[in-house]
Amino acid sequence: MPFLLGPSTILLVLAAAPPRDSGDIFHATLGETGARTAEVSTQELREILAARSATVFDSRPHLEYAMGHIPGAVNVAAKPGVEMAKYVSDVAEISRVLGNRK
Question: Where are the domains of the chain?
């Protein structure tokens, strides 16, 4: 049976990872070796969001999203009654948000 990590465990692991030496929190990344995707610092994400060159999707429940999220993030929470463990992003909703910017 696979072992699933909860969000608090993942957060703890991320908090324990040493940041790359880059001066301050706004320019630091985790510096993960062998990462399959590019890392983005806080400042780079701010610039990306300001330029509207990417969309950040937040799949947490509406209440969690309302309590705090990345400014400009779009909430694509599960439909009412769907367990988080069974939730898959609603492709139609994401397509609607992105329009022709896929």
Answer: 1-53, 55-102
